[in-house]
Amino acid sequence: MQLTRRGFLRLGGAVMASGALEEILGPRIAVAEESPQVLRVKEAVESPTVCCFCSVGCGGICSVVDGKLVALEGDPDHPINQGTLCAKGAAQFNLHAVYDPDSGEVRVNPARQQKVLYRAPNGSEWEEKDWEWAVSEIAKRVKATRDASFVTKDDAGVTVNRTEAIGSLGAAALDNEECYLLHKLNRALGLVYIEHQARI
């Protein structure tokens, strides 16, 4: 067999390429074989959810282990996004949790606000309050505003039972059942101005 100049160059190139591939891939393959990773969603319970960032309402799947969120991905069965998520939707896992790949541990994001911050009227400083205080305070203020502005009959004498001093703005984070309950509450309070983020 005669080796031509062109054949020699091809053979030399192939030998160099195989050597380079072995140099590049060899150590990585060895490391991967030595330390196999355990899949963090192996024993997770999956729950469907709706993305909270915009009015599109893309679907996601939350993977939860021992009450902790360990992963969040797009829902392939959802009719809107069919498993895809935008950059903000894909990053919403980081709003709740921080995953440490070295230890495999998932912790609550330390940057996430855990308490209610309250600033008094005309105040300049924020105070930390607990949730019981916040919910009670909101209920008191809603009742006081409704009582002060409630109209039972309009100028023509027609019964209207409404308040125009409170408005409600729903968000894409609410699913159908939550929107239904919020709408029922708003109508029971006599609200007129009821809107949703998707309509604005």
Secondary-structure map:
Elements: H1 5-34, E1 45-50, E2 59-65, E3 68-74, H2 87-90, H3 93-96, E4 97-100, E5 105-108, E6 116-118, E7 127-129, H4 131-149, E8 151-153, E9 159-170, H5 176-189, E10 191-196
Parallel strand pairs: 9-10
Antiparallel strand pairs: 1-2, 2-3, 4-5, 6-7, 8-9
Mean pLDDT: 80
Residue stretches low in confidence (pLDDT < 50, at least 5 long) are: none
The shape, in one word, is elongated
Number of strands: 10
Head-to-tail CA distance between termini: 78 Å
Q: Give the percentage of residues in beta strands.
A: 25-35%
Question: From N to C, what is the helix and strand string?
Answer: HEEEHHEEEEHEEHE
What does this structure look like?
This protein is of the alpha+beta class and 200 residues long. The protein is built from 5 helices and 10 strands.
